[in-house]
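WARN no homologs supplied; continuing
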Amino acid sequence: MIWELCLLFLAGGLRAVHAGPVRKPLKIEDNSSTQEEINLLIFGVLQFGNSLNHVYETTEAKLAKIRQMLKNHEETLRNFGVETEQAAEMKKQMKEVVQLLQEQLTEQQAQTQTMKEQMVSLEQDEDELKMKAERLETYLSNAVTTSIKQLQERAQEHSDVLQGLQHLIQLHKENIETQSNQLTKLQNLSEGVA
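OK structure emitted
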């Protein structure tokens, strides 16, 4: 296209020369100077065409680079959008996990409190049984009319019940310690996630 413009410009310039008024016959010196001017004009047009061609090519290359940069920026923005959505989803999931952990922690605390209350009650029952056993021993030592065999059997029964209660209290203590450890782990996990 640039070459076509150059040729059109050149043809227009030549036509202007021919369309001019008829001149007197020129001397050979004038004819050679006119030929030099035409040559210079053609050379200038060619130089101008080359310059336009160079500007066109460099502009096209720059536009291609700009298009590529825009494409890269669009891709980066698209990736940022995807990453933002993923981060929002992860944040939502983490909130749900924290809420679940807090609910479990509250439930564990309630269970621990219940177990502590049961343990206090069992300890009171144990104290009561100890007092009854002591009274029974006192009664046995003071009672002459009661048969020793019956008293020994009752004492053995009370002793067995007392041992059973002590074993049950020990199991409850171990259970409370286990729940306390689990509660501590849940609290640490909840603090770590938060």
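The two ends are 68 Å apart (CA to CA).
OK
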